[in-house]
Amino acid sequence: MTVAEEPVHLVEPFRITGYVFTEMPVVVVRLREEGAVGEGEASGVYYLGDDVPAMISAVEAALSEIEAGLDREGLRRLMPPCGGRNALDCALWDLEAKRRRQPVWKLAGLERPQSLVTTFTVGAAEPAVMAAKARAYAQARALKLKLTGEAELDAERVRAVRAARPETWIAVDANQGFDPDSLEVLTPALVEADVRLLEQPFARGREDHHDGLKCPIPIAADESVLSFDDIEPLVGRVQVINIKLDKCGGLTEGLAMAREAKRLGLGVMVGNMVGTSLAMGPAYLLGQLCEVVDLDGPIFITQDRLPSVSYVDGRISYPEHGWGSAP
């Protein structure tokens, strides 16, 4: 096993509630066994302090168990959900595909992957700037707008984007920026603009804000649902869960979460932290089980790795010879 930090530079600064990102380094794990190599990439979870040093430390602590032959279920028991576990888990899937000469989608019991409509994310900025960015995503069938918790300004942002793209499916991501009062101020503008999904309006830990909330727009939990154990307490509070592999610790847990959410009557969304196409491969497979797909990370970086995802007519496709393919 080897683990290394690799730089990932953003095309431009990216703003959400409380953060401005200028770069997003990733951790890459490679597992080698009898000539086969499995790879996994993770960006970590910034709001949990799960950064590159933390991920590398977590991975290195598991070195002896991994090299002794620990499997994916053993990894779930050994490590808590985190970016490091995600990189390891995805590398184990990729290695198994190479060793068994079967693609990961078959190993995971999925149908052959199909291209998916994905959202294209518009970072928080002045309304006119966001409208221009929305128009620049000419191929987009779906947009996700980052908000900042400033209700009146956020309302202007949503109205501007809707005017620029009257035909497009729109979601908004509050990134924990609201409370019930400020959300009440914003909601009429969301309804007027035909916003179809509201992601994480309230802070993680304040899930009680959803109790008794009358919101005409479906709500998706993101920061409030890190891993499998977070799903059941959200039933009756939200309508959708957003699964990100860096949060839940890998494709193994992500697939289990998607199936459990469906069993409980919740919709499923797959999201991503910014990363390269190596990170999009396993998330793309998870996306085959999801109603909402948000896998646009590679469009925000200056240089992607090969093989790369493609974005055509608002859809993401992952190459058959990329991560998780059989040799």
Our Rg estimate from Cα atoms comes to 19 Å
- Physical arrangement of strands within the biggest beta sheet: 7-8-9-10-11-12-13-14
User: CATH superfamily membership of the largest domain, which one?
Assistant: Enolase-like C-terminal domain
Tell me the name of the CATH class of the largest domain.
Answer: Alpha Beta
CATH architectural label of the largest domain: Alpha-Beta Barrel
**Averaged pLDDT, please?**
96
β content, as a range? Answer: 15-25%
Instruction: Compute the number of structural domains.
Output: 2
Tell how many strands the DSSP assignment holds.
Answer: 16
| Helix and strand element order | EEEEEHHHHHEEHEHEHEEEHHEHEEE
CATH topology group of the largest domain = TIM Barrel
Q: How many strands, which pairing sense, and closed or not: the largest β-sheet?
A: 8 strands, parallel
- The helical percent reads 25-40%
Q: Helix/strand/pairing class, anyone?
A: alpha/beta
| End-to-end distance | 20 Å
Q: Report the principal-axis shape.
A: globular
Name the poorly predicted regions. Answer: none
Q: What is the overall number of helices?
A: 11
